[in-house]
Amino acid sequence: MNFLQTMRLALTPLSPIHIGCGEDFEPTNYLIEDNTLFAFDPSRARLPEPLARRLGELGEQADLLGIQRFFRDHRQHFLPHADVLIPVAPGLAADYEKRVGNVANREANGNRVFNDLSIERATQSNGQPYIPGSSLKGGLRTGMLDHLNDGRPPLSSERGRGPNSWDSARIESRLLQGDFATSPLRLVKPADLMPAGEIAREVLYALNHKKDRVVDRNGNERQPRGIASRKECIVAGQYRAFTGSLALHNLGEHREPTATPVGSLRPADFAGIARDSNRYHLPRLRAEIRMLDQRGFLDPAWKKGIEDLLAGDLRPLIDTGRVLLVRLGRFGGAESKTLSGEGVAQIKIMEGKGPDGRSRASFHSHTKTVWLAGRNTEDRRHLLPFGWALVEVEPQGDLSQLRDWCELQAASRPNMHDIRARFAQARADAAQHAERQRAEREATRLAEQARLAAAAEHALRQASLTPAMREIEAFVDGCAKRIEQLRGAKDKPNTVFQQKARALVDQAAAWDAAERTAAAKAIEDWLPRVVAIEVKELRKKLGLAALRGEAQG
Q: Residue 329 region, left (φ>0) first, then alpha (ψ -120 to 50), else beta?
């Protein structure tokens, strides 16, 4: 007997899926530009000293808005260090530009209320979203329990603490005829579904809308007060985007009343589990499509595409359990996680605070609102439900209709190849700019080092010279600097430097022979470079031969 069956699975998302990981993108570690989110580690950016000092001051002041504005205003220093790039819905990108670094409103006491610009991240593995096996098992579990219950109402002994509520743990224990140790669900072990390639994702709004139209006294439709939240989502229409496996244990004749599941509840094969899931989820998908369409919320192209798939090639595969429908993630709605039957589902709905200041809640068979994925907060005509996916069991060949629908969805998505190419070029440009700045800083450092060394050498030389030789050095240094200023031109005769040369001759008359000769040589070598005068005339006018102690020619 084969005690372990292992089946390959392939998952195709039908609508946006958000399975959170408990981490957020915050406006201090991401920027949005050109409808793309760039997430980065701020510590990797090397800021110029004045900017680094300013960021430190904002941190010491705990000025959150100032820090947000700092990152936005100096994005060129942070964008090249991004290690995550995700497309962002256009409405969300525009909202970011409008709200980042600004106060949302002020309370009556003057306190500032900040815009919440956090973005909930999806479950990640090596930088790519994946589908945890526990999420898939949760969907399968609900289908199995619903099949066992078959719409029957709970027993009176299974009432919960709240009014009109049920104790789900007691119901589950009755249906499975035991506790965790004897649950048949222990025999079903799906592994995590990992990306088969690069997963397309997008940051979308999660928008809360009422299922039934509610109007105020003026006839205007009321909307829920909940704030639109931002979610990193796996986008719909990615053919066999995730792959994995599921192990189904067969215990055979092995039975221990306190350690093994009841024999009649043990799943015989995975097709039965898949059919349970489809019996549970398919009516809910169709009911949700019908309700959203009646309210005018649903994207009509998505509605038609899904209905065509369910009525086409997928239908026999769903009926036989070769393909199962499942709902994943947080925003699938409580109705996709509760048992069927009028009065069976007990969904807790908060109703604000009562006269005593305590929160009030009631229990109902259906939720009053629905969470939908949107690309801006104002659009109410092109929304999508969260979390719907198809899972193929031992996929064989190609599902051409599903693949074609996925290709159609892909045509409207941003081209990540182009986005990454532009980012790579921007990063290369930033690296070249940084290298130029580094080279300039190094050249400046070396030049300053050379200047200091020359100054030190000059000081030592000056200290070793006699007063007469220092005067000669000063004359030579002055001529050299003047040559740099003139850049090839020359002063006219009888200007300042010729006067300085004459003064040097007068001073040298009292020096010893070597110093007089050095003075004459310095004047003869340097003054013609500064002043337009012939050397022969220079010697005659300044008496350089006499200064050397030579006979006049």
A: left
Position 16, amino acid: P
Same domain, 539 and 429: no
Q: Tell me the C-alpha to C-alpha distance, in Å, between residue 402 and each of 14, 305, 389.
A: 10, 9, 12
Do residues 177 and 171 lie in contact, with contact meaning Cβ atoms separated by under 8 Å?
no
Please report the pLDDT score of residue 108 as a whole number: 47
φ, ψ of residue 101 to 5 degrees: the values are: 80, 10
CA proximity to 278, closest of 363, 390, 371, 423: 390
Residues 139 and 256 in one domain: yes
Q: Which of 352, 387, 414 is the last residue of a domain?
A: 414
Residue 159: pLDDT band with limits 50, 70, 90: confident
For the chain, give the number of residues.
553
pTM as predicted: 0.77
Write the burial class of residue 56 (CB in 10 Å: 0-12 exposed, 13-18 middle, 19+ buried): exposed
C-alpha angle 110-112-115 in degrees, rounded to nearest 5? 155
| d(C-alpha 203, C-alpha 205), whole Å | 7
**Is the same domain home to 176 and 222?**
yes
Structure confidence by residue, pLDDT tens digits, 27-53:
889 999 999 999 998 888 888 888 889
Q: Residue 447 — very low, low, confident or very high, per pLDDT cuts 50/70/90?
A: very high
What is the torsional sign of CA 216, 220, 223, 225? negative
CB 205: neighbour CB atoms within 10 A?
23
The verdict on 358 and 495 lying in the same domain is: no
Range of the domain at 38: 27-117
Q: What is the mean pLDDT of residues 172-184?
A: 77
